[in-house]
Amino acid sequence: MSGAATLDSFTSLWEEWRTERDRVLAEPYGILSITSINFLTAEPVPIEGVPGRWSTSEDGPVVELAPGEELLDGDRTVTGRLALGPLAGSPPRQLRSGRILIEAFRKDGWDIVRPRDPEAPLRVGFAGTPAYDPDPRWRIAGRWLPYPAPRSVRIGSIQERLGGPVDSPGEVEFELDGRVHRLVAVPAHGAPGSIALLFRDRTSGVTTYPAQRELLVALPESGDAVVLDFTRAANKNCAYTDFAVCPLPPAGNTLDVAIEAGERIPYGRLES
């Protein structure tokens, strides 16, 4: 295959990746449709745009519906009081009120409710994600350095009330600008056979989202050689909405180099 054909293929695959990323973001009930994030306590409180007053206890979230209010729980219409039960270890519980989807889930000790509305301004006004042009020079050879046993590392969250320890399987080492860099890896949820690198660099807060970007790296079937394709350094959900629950990079995962590749600050956040 000629060099030109190889470059065309690289660019074409990158464009397919970017198109799919924006397609998922713009789905009717995707991340851009979330209208609020609500951390439940023992005190019943209303949630804007959602029926009822919401609270939680050791027995899980409860919603108290006023006369005339109702929710759809699967195929069942609910009135009065609905106890969702403990959510720990469960997928999000989903209820509906008209076009509004209401998800309830538990994370880091909190029961959380987030309404989703396909007509949310953030979704309706989504214009795609800006990115650096794909340049193969940002596809860098690296080395996988697994730990003998997983190590507990503390991960913060874009939501101050969340965060905690996760098991890191190892580190990735690579050379850039004549220096050796290392990043601590965390599990890549939804990407079997890969690890996730959450990182900041000199572009963070300048041209890329300040909190972090994420790079998925496929683990080798044998040996320790890996490829870091920084043209696919991706924004996490918190780059688009304040209602995400994204993790922050482990301590030390700030690169003293500008990674001018991958996704940039979303259009709607440029003045944030």
Number of helices: 2
Strand order of the largest sheet: 1-10-9-8
Low-confidence stretches: none
Strand content: 35-45%
Can you walk me through this structure?
With 272 residues, the chain is mostly beta strands. It folds into 2 domains: 81 residues, no CATH class; 143 residues, no CATH class. It is built from 2 helices and 17 strands. The strands form 5 sheets. A 4-stranded antiparallel beta sheet has the order 1-10-9-8, with no helix packed on it. A 4-stranded antiparallel beta sheet has the order 2-3-4-7, with no helix packed on it. Strand 3 and strand 4 form a beta hairpin. It starts with a helix and ends in a 43-residue tail after the last strand.
Task: Write a brief caption for the model.
By secondary structure, the chain is mostly beta strands. It is built from two helices and 17 strands.
Entry keywords:
272 residues, 2 domains, four-stranded antiparallel sheet, 2 helices, 17 strands, globular
SSE layout:
Blueprint: H1 3-25, E1 38-39, E2 45-47, E3 50-57, E4 60-64, E5 71-73, E6 76-78, E7 81-83, E8 93-97, E9 100-107, E10 110-116, H2 121-124, E11 139-155, E12 164-176, E13 179-184, E14 186-187, E15 194-199, E16 213-218, E17 225-229
Antiparallel strand pairs: 1-10, 2-3, 3-4, 4-7, 5-6, 8-9, 9-10, 11-12, 11-17, 12-13, 14-15, 15-16
